[in-house]
Write a structure and sequence with these properties.
Blueprint (H helix, E strand, L loop, with lengths): L3 E11 L7 E11 L4 E6 H7 L4 E4 L4 E4 L1 E7 L13 H15 L3 H17 L2 E7 L4 H14 L2 E5 L1 E2 L12 H15 L6 E6 L7 H13 L4 E6 L3 H10 L6 H6 L8 E5 L5 H10 L2 E4 L1 H6 L7 H7 L3 E3 L11 H14 L9 H8 L1 H6 L17 E4 L6 H7 L4 H11 L5 E6 L2 E5 L2 E2 L9
Parallel strand pairs: 1-4, 6-7, 7-8, 8-10, 9-10, 10-11, 11-12, 12-13, 13-14
Antiparallel strand pairs: 1-2, 2-3, 5-15, 15-16, 16-17, 17-18
Helix pairs in contact: 3-4, 4-5, 5-6, 12-13, 12-16, 13-16, 15-16
The chain binds zinc ion.
């Protein structure tokens, strides 16, 4: 048996499946020095079994598994909040000018610092991150994430048309730069590589073929991109790929879809595309605040569930309006309400599942994170709302755990995330970040 360093005592929620939540108001979690949960049960019993362990009492807050963001753009932290435009205009006026600035390595390093700090502040311990079009900027992201031990899957974003010239590459360069980055980062600590064409609109068949070659060369690599986000985008892609049956097929044709693939949005899918995604076990990153901000449309969650397509949550920063997965959960709930009878009524348990275990599953990490089960690593956040805030009042007067969890999704924000652990190591405490290694300059 591994040595146990700590027993956490907590009021804790998690979602071993999507049918409901598990709540314990005096949970004991024994965590080994390697950060693995070695025992779970009533605190009295776990503490009796581990008499030498340090006990950390977290009952003044609420303990949740670390949040999982399956779609978030590293270069866009500074362009959050530009409202009033549809997708293609927003890209041209806001996102793409900022993305070009990451050609400057110093600028990219500053953005990486802000981006990683923003993830941690929101309680996001695991993420699938859209990287940069510039390889040194992707290095900066992985470097900064590794300083905190965050679980980040990311890669070089590639495009060869329809974008400003500095953001374009060639299939040959895309392939060699990706292999180079993957050789440095894929499988190093908690980092993994994701092959990332921006979207088919800006990626021709030759560059998608180069992406497939990287997938073949890098064992265990992930694939991510965008799909069916906006009607004008979908129509343009249809015109660019007349030989494909739809947007999903532009990726599937090259063998890019599988269990390690995550596509963002899918607001306007054909039924046949849902069947393909289900068959490939490719997950969709649902990004409701982005879909609303850009007016992209209302996500058909019921149809995805009926077809058997896995769905998790993404913030889609910077089209999304912030890093908090609590807000994305709430927005997902709103969207389903607005769909009326076509919507899927989401409970607080569903929202927690989407923000944690479903994200872990989409990223192939169900055995590692997502719940507080024995054998998993201790990735967790503790919510402690400031006294007198609506969330503090609400939690103190909640009539049931279900009510309390509903209040968390209705009211919680970054300010309520007091503590953050990844793999048993605390990386934020009382709102302050604690890196594992110092910032290296030079
Ligand atoms: Zn996106």
């Amino acid at each position: 048996m591994r040595p146990t360093e700590v027993v956490y005592r907590a009021r804790a929620f998690d979602t071993p499946d999507d049918s409901g939540f598990r709540y314990d108001d005096d949970l004991g979690l024994a965590v080994s020095s390697e950060g693995v949960i070695t025992a779970r049960g009533a605190f009295a019993s776990v503490s009796a079994d581990h008499p030498d362990a340090t006990v950390i009492d977290l009952r003044s807050g609420i303990l949740l598994p670390g949040l999982v963001d399956t779609h978030v753009h590293f270069p866009q932290v500074r362009v959050i909040g530009a409202l009033g435009m549809p997708l293609l205009e927003w890209l041209e006026r806001c996102a793409l000018p900022e993305e070009q600035r990451l050609a400057d390595a110093g600028y990219a390093a500053a953005i990486a610092g802000e981006f990683v700090a923003s993830l941690i502040a929101a309680g996001t311990t695991t993420s699938l991150v859209f990287g940069s079009h510039f390889a040194p900027a992707v290095d900066a992201l992985f470097t900064e994430a590794s300083r905190f031990g965050l679980r980040v899957t990311s890669g070089l974003v590639v495009s060869d048309r329809m974008l400003p010239e500095p953001l374009l590459t060639t299939p040959e360069r895309a392939h060699s730069e990706a292999l180079d980055l993957a050789s440095r980062w894929h499988g190093k600590d908690r980092a993994r590589y994701a092959v990332t064409p921006r979207f088919s609109l800006s990626a021709s068949d030759p560059i998608l073929e180069a992406c497939a070659a990287v997938m073949a060369d890098v064992e265990g690599a992930f694939f991510t991109s965008h799909v069916n986000e906006n009607p004008a985008e979908v129509a343009t892609v249809a015109g660019q790929f007349p030989d494909r049956s739809g947007y999903v097929d532009t990726y599937d044709h090259h063998g890019l879809l599988g269990v390690r693939s995550v596509l963002a949005h899918n607001v306007h899918p054909q039924d046949s595309e849902l069947a393909v995604l289900a068959h490939r076990r490719t997950a969709i990153a649902h990004c409701p605040s982005s879909n609303s901000a850009l007016g992209s449309g209302l996500f058909r969650l019921r149809e995805h569930a009926a077809a058997g397509v896995p769905v998790a949550l993404g913030s889609d920063v910077g089209a999304g309006t912030g890093f908090s997965l609590f807000k994305e959960g709430l927005q997902a709930y709103f969207v389903q309400r607005l769909l009326g009878d076509d919507g899927l009524a989401l409970t607080p348990a569903h929202l927690l599942h989407l923000a944690t275990a479903a994200g872990a599953a989409a990223l192939g990490l169900s055995d590692v994170i997502g719940t507080f089960d024995v054998g998993k690593e201790f990735d967790a956040i503790c919510l402690r709302p400031p006294a007198g805030t609506a969330l503090d009042i609400g939690l103190r007067h909640a009539g049931s755990p279900d009510e309390a969890l509903g209040k968390v999704f209705a009211l919680a924000s970054d300010a309520d995330v007091a503590d953050v652990w990844v793999g048993g190591t605390q990386i934020a405490s009382g709102g302050f970040l604690r890196a594992l290694s110092p910032l290296r300059r030079g």
